[in-house]
Write a structure and sequence with these properties.
Elements: E1 5-6, E2 11-12, E3 15-16, E4 18-23, H1 30-44, E5 48-53, H2 58-66, E6 71-73, H3 82-95, E7 99-103, H4 104-108, E8 117-122, E9 136-139, H5 142-150, E10 158-160, E11 186-190, H6 199-206, E12 213-217, H7 223-233, E13 239-241, H8 248-254, E14 257-260, H9 269-277, E15 281-284, H10 287-292, E16 300-302, H11 307-319, H12 321-338, H13 341-357
Parallel strand pairs: 4-5, 4-7, 5-6, 7-8, 8-9, 9-10, 11-12, 11-14, 12-13, 14-15, 15-16
Antiparallel strand pairs: 1-2, 2-3
């Protein structure tokens, strides 16, 4: 039977395109946040959606409900697999999707043969074998697409589709909320407290950035260790651990500089969030930032784990308002060209069309 896809109204055989998402994911994280953004964007283009996900993030489930996107929850237990497999199979039978998109490696291992076309989504350098029965693959960066092709996937079945940043202009957070003086330079880090995010390097850099205060928005396994490190370094009076936050726009509107020192980062949505917010960016040369940040054009790049280099970059940017304006201009241009909601919607729907025709 021939399937017809209307590129203007996004109808399949005369009815709305149906996309089912399967995502395990962590309780919080950049990829998990982007999944919610993607579902919102597709809903705004009248795509009918259904989600199978874990139950541990109420904010994510509330966002789905706000868009009237139905969902089922599953454990995604990698040892006792049959309950999750059963839920996915039943959801596919009930919803009858045109496409099932498996987000990240854990969900990918649960991919099943169905009538629908299966798509794998890569937010990191996963092995293709983690996505059995997926014929098409999405990488969020050009290098991830290259990584997928290098594992033997035909290039015509692989697409780079960037994440996008949701940025609604928000009023800044009052600095007094976190006992921060108005007149000091304010640095912001948006990151899980995980070794790969290199918040320890940022804390060490702060030692030689006079007067600057640092807000760290994120939670994770290293929280106590990083708090102890701040005390040992003597900077704890200038550091605020905010926990996980869902008001990133307001935090970025408050900060003078966004610092992104990750050791490992396949892409890093923080980059485009800073660009969208017009907040000057400093990033370490992990794979994602290195591929998209142009040094001294839309951000400053420093070597990974380079305390002195990061310190110098922060002090330089604080002191140079012309450089701040230059980075804001370049970041805005990069964001508008590649990372808006409309760009994502167009690219995703174009790829879905190609998948259905294949």
């Amino acid at each position: 039977m021939h399937t017809t896809f209307d590129t203007q109204s996004h109808l399949v055989d005369g009815r709305p395109l149906r996309v089912m998402h399967v995502i395990a994911g962590a309780e919080q994280g950049g990829a998990e946040t982007f999944f919610s953004d993607a579902a919102d964007a597709l809903a705004d283009r009248a795509v009918s959606q259904f989600v199978v996900t874990r139950p541990h993030n109420k904010f994510r489930l509330d966002r789905l409900a706000s868009k009237d996107i139905p969902y089922k929850v599953a454990s995604f237990n990698k040892f006792i697999r049959w309950p999750t497999q059963k839920i996915i199979r039943e959801a596919a039978n009930e919803f009858d999707p045109d496409i099932i998109q498996y987000w990240m490696g854990r969900a990918g291992t649960f991919a099943q043969k169905t009538r629908a076309k299966n798509i794998a989504w890569y937010g990191g350098y996963y092995k293709v074998r983690r996505f059995p029965h997926c014929t098409h693959h999405i990488g969020v960066t050009r290098d991830l697409a290259r990584h997928i092709i290098d594992q033997g996937v035909p290039p015509q079945n692989v697409r780079t589709i960037h994440t996008y940043a949701v940025y609604d202009v928000k009023d800044p957070v009052s600095r007094s909320t976190f006992s921060t003086p108005e007149e000091v330079p304010l640095l912001l880090a948006l990151a899980r407290l995980h070794p790969k995010k290199a918040i320890d390097i940022l804390l060490k850099s702060l030692v030689n950035v006079p007067d600057a205060h640092l807000w760290i928005a994120g939670d994770g396994e290293l929280k106590t260790e990083l708090q102890d490190l701040a005390k040992t370094l003597g900077v704890d009076s200038r550091v605020r651990f905010l926990g996980w936050r869902n008001d990133r726009e307001a935090l970025l509107a408050t900060a003078d500089i966004c610092v992104f020192p990750s050791r490992y980062e396949p892409f890093g949505t923080v980059t485009i969030e800073a660009w969208a917010a017009k907040t000057p960016l400093i990033a370490a040369k992990a794979a994602g930032p290195k591929a998209y940040v142009e040094h001294e054009t839309n951000g400053l790049l420093v070597e990974i784990d380079d305390v002195d280099g990061l310190t110098a970059a922060i002090n330089r940017l604080i002191a140079n308002t012309d450089l701040q304006k230059q980075l804001i201009k370049g970041g805005t241009e990069a964001f508008d060209a590649q990372f808006t909601k409309s760009v994502f919607q167009d690219e995703a729907l174009k790829f879905y069309q190609e998948v259905l025709k294949s």
